[in-house]
Amino acid sequence: MDPFGRVMMGGLAVVMFVMLLRATMTGVVYNEGDAVSADDNPSGFVLNVVVDTAGMFFFGALAAGYTIDDMWQVALKLLNLKTGMA
To answer: Which domain covers residue 25, as residue numbers?
Structure first.
């Protein structure tokens, strides 16, 4: 990925980090204009936080120079699955 793309991915990861920090401090996640509160809808809040955390790590890894294939190989190793690739 070119340097500009890596900066963009890093920026997205930072924005998601700030969004997660605000969500954990206030107990409210804003998703497409709707507020999901930890008090009113705890499962929706947790689901949003988990998905946003995964996105943050994904964009951070892309910014660090990893490719999607690298991340796929790590996921397969974590799951102890083998592919037919050499």
So the answer is: 3-78
